[in-house]
């Protein structure tokens, strides 16, 4: 049985997208955490190592990385292996610039409790115009 939750977001950019959630704990950098040839999470020892992120919505506690992270997002998008959205508790300006440059939906403002309630494989929809995340919790 699924449960639908509507979660407010504080800042959003992009188009409405929906897809499978991939929840990342401990920060996220597209440069250091993703294989830029496959679009898979590539961080040995991490619970998500090998997980495909192409076409999925990444939910992250915080953004990591500098200017190269923004360029990495654009490279992933150009190769059609990028996630379709990035949702953070707290983003950083470089990640926001990179997402806008790559024309990816990005948002921030998840509460800690909402972030910890969402699971990888939940179905999520990001609606930037309404500043909300709609979560269909599966299972």
From TrEMBL:
<dbReference type="GO" id="GO:0016829">
    <property type="term" value="F:lyase activity"/>
</dbReference>
<feature type="domain" description="Phosphomevalonate dehydratase small subunit-like">
    <location>
        <begin position="29"/>
        <end position="106"/>
    </location>
</feature>
<dbReference type="Pfam" id="PF01989">
    <property type="entry name" value="AcnX_swivel_put"/>
</dbReference>
<protein>
    <submittedName>
        <fullName>DUF126 domain-containing protein</fullName>
    </submittedName>
</protein>
<keyword id="KW-0456">Lyase</keyword>
<dbReference type="InterPro" id="IPR002840">
    <property type="entry name" value="PMDh-S-like_dom"/>
</dbReference>
